[in-house]
Amino acid sequence: MIVMQDVRIGTAFVMDGNGYVALKSEFSKSGRNAAVMKLKIKNLLTNQISEGVYKAADKVEEINLDLRPMQYSYNDGNDYVFMDMESFEQVEIPVEQLGDTIFFLEDNMEIEIAFYEGRAVTVKLPINIVREITETEPGIKGDTSGKSMKRAKIASGYELMVPLFCEIGTKIKIDTRDGSYVERVK
């Protein structure tokens, strides 16, 4: 058993007899009110996404998902196909189930896929990935503070905010948990 306060992005747990995985997790404590967790969760079997506010002290049972190393093969339009690195078995996961994860996948990328009751439910990406900027406004010389931001796009079409000094062709590190810029890669 874990308390709701310990639920982070990617944590799988049982609540009300159903299995869920946390997509977003935010702790909140204000004034006299009790501490609460604002969660965006996905039902592991139905893929239904819901949001709610829960008491931070509530207890839930943590689920240990079966993680298997796999390699991203291709997208056939409706499904993303992954290959098991040991048995060479292929697993298909629908686009809707992957969400924003699709923007960070690359051909032949090695990742982990979580299985719940024998069914592939989610993809576990590395925390940081390196991608090249394909579209952005021209950079401003001399601004290396990183506090002013502008919109940029990577090859997959994903848009994020980057510092003004980043230009087309700049390699950047992206946090896959929230899709944010981390740093420029030399």
Automatic annotation (TrEMBL):
Record keywords, A-Z: Cytoplasm, Elongation factor, Protein biosynthesis
State what protein this is by name.
Elongation factor P
Family affiliation: Belongs to the elongation factor P family.
Q: Does the keyword Cytoplasm apply?
A: yes
Lineage per the UniProt record: Bacteria, Pseudomonadati, Spirochaetota, Spirochaetia, Spirochaetales
Please give the pathway this protein is involved in.
Protein biosynthesis; polypeptide chain elongation
> What is the documented function of this protein?
Involved in peptide bond synthesis. Stimulates efficient translation and peptide-bond synthesis on native or reconstituted 70S ribosomes in vitro. Probably functions indirectly by altering the affinity of the ribosome for aminoacyl-tRNA, thus increasing their reactivity as acceptors for peptidyl transferase.
**Subcellular locations according to the entry:** Cytoplasm
Where is this protein primarily located?
A: cytoplasm
PROSITE patterns per the record?
A: EFP
